[in-house]
Specification:
two-stranded antiparallel sheet; alpha+beta
Length: 188
């Protein structure tokens, strides 16, 4: 058990070292594109993970919250469970108020009916994961700025459909997408 505890502490130190290295690179004038290239990710992904922004209205630092990747994966599947069972009251509780206004029960039901006519009833999920809006997979809980996307494959009677759920820093649904797994480009 000591070995596990030390490995965890080592991982935390490595994350802190990486964060400090990125901050030092920024102070030295390196761009987010440079940092992203060194990390094997886009400049946006590097910024969302390590950057900060200031609210022009009040001058306060905009901070990202600790995004629980497991919670977002669970939320993603819950959203499609609610849609597939017509439980819009529970779905409403997960959504940002503005998004819920734009995505009426009727629109969601109509879209789900199209899914049913193409691939049949939902049976299970596979490969549920979380990505940055540009597509980079997020493996660990991170302090992130802005929106992330929960992605799952809905395995249905006669095929698969990709479900995507955009989630804000308060872990509210701010976007929904149902498309064929090979659809591209994706809006989020």
């Amino acid at each position: 058990m000591d070995e596990i505890a030390e490995a965890k502490a080592s991982l935390e130190r490595a994350r802190e070292d990486l964060k400090l290295s990125v901050q030092n690179a920024r102070r030295q004038g390196r761009t987010w594109a440079d940092i992203g290239a060194a990390l094997g990710m886009t400049r946006q992904a590097a910024f969302k993970r390590f950057g900060n922004a200031t609210d022009p209205a009040d001058g306060r630092k905009i901070t990202g919250g600790l995004m629980s990747i497991d919670k977002i994966r669970t939320l993603t599947e819950q959203v499609f469970d609610h849609i597939s069972t017509g439980n819009y009251t529970s779905l409403d509780k997960l959504m940002h108020p503005t998004t819920r206004t734009e995505l009426s029960d009727e629109l969601i039901a109509e879209t789900w009916a199209r899914v049913l006519s193409e691939v049949g009833q939902k049976q299970s999920y596979s490969d549920t994961h979380v990505v940055m809006p540009a597509g980079e997979r997020i493996e660990d809980d991170e302090h992130l700025l802005g929106t992330v996307v929960g992605v799952t494959t809905l395995n249905c009677e006669a095929g698969e459909i990709m479900g995507r759920v955009a989630v804000d820093e308060q872990q509210r649904v701010v976007g929904l997408l149902l498309v064929s797994p090979d659809h591209s480009p994706l809006p989020f």
